[in-house]
Amino acid sequence: MWGSDGERAQCRRRAFAYQARFGLPALFVTLTPNVAESFVMAQYCGITSVDTLFDAALSEPPGRSALHSASMRNDVASARLFVRNVDAFIEHVLGIPVNRMKTKPFDGLFGDVKAYFGMVETQGGGTLHAHFLIWLADVPPNTNAFDQTLAVHGDQYFRDIEAFADSIVTTSVPLCIAESSFVFCGHSYADLQELPIPTEAYEDPQKIYREHSRHCGEPMLVKCSGCATALSSQHVIRRL
Prior knowledge:
The chain is α+β, with helices and mostly antiparallel strands. The protein has helices at about 5-20, 40-45, 55-60, 65-75, 75-95, 145-155, 155-170, 205-210, 235-240, and strands at about 25-30, 115-120, 130-135, 195, 220-225, 230.
C-alpha cells in the first residue's frame, strides 16, 4: 500500500540494492519545485484560462494567496504539476528520458548518470518535494577506490572535484542591485560595503530566544556607502 511502513521498507531495500550494484552515490539532490504559486497551477485549477502566453501577458495575474489556496484545495492539480517538474528534472538535468529510461546521446547537467533513485514526500506546507540519490560514471564507487584515485592523481583530483561542483552549483542570484537605492538616503545599492559576519549569525535563533527571551534579528551584513547605515541581506533583497 502506498505510504505504508511496508512500502517504506521496500524502498529502503531497493536503495540498498542500488548501492550494492553501483557503489556509494555521488550526489544527494533535493528537488523542491514551487508549484503552489505558478501560472501553470492557475491554469490547472481553472483560475485562469488562456490559449497562448501572449494572452497571459495581457490578463490580470492572480495573486499568490489565491494560487496557494487553489493548489491546497486541488491535490490532483498539484500532483500533476509536480510530476511534470520531476519528469523535466529527470530528462534535462539527469539526461534520462522518462518514457524510454535510457540515457540521451548527450549528458545532462550532472554529466554521465549511471543510475538514480528518488522518493517523494510531503512538506510541512502540504506541497511535495523529492529526494534523489544519483550515481555518476567515472566516480569512485567506495572509499578504497577514492583513495586509490587520489594516490594516482594527487591534488589535481581535488581541483577537478571543485571545478565540477562549481559547474553545477551557484549561490548567487542574477539580480541587478544598481537599479535600487537605500530607502532613507536614496544612495544606490551598487556601492554597498561588506561587513564582517557577526557571531550571532552562526547561532541557533531558537536557543537565543530560550536563553534571553528575545528574538534574534537579521544579521547586519552590508552598509550604505552614503549614510553608513547597516543593512541585512534580506532588507536589500526586499528592495530589489
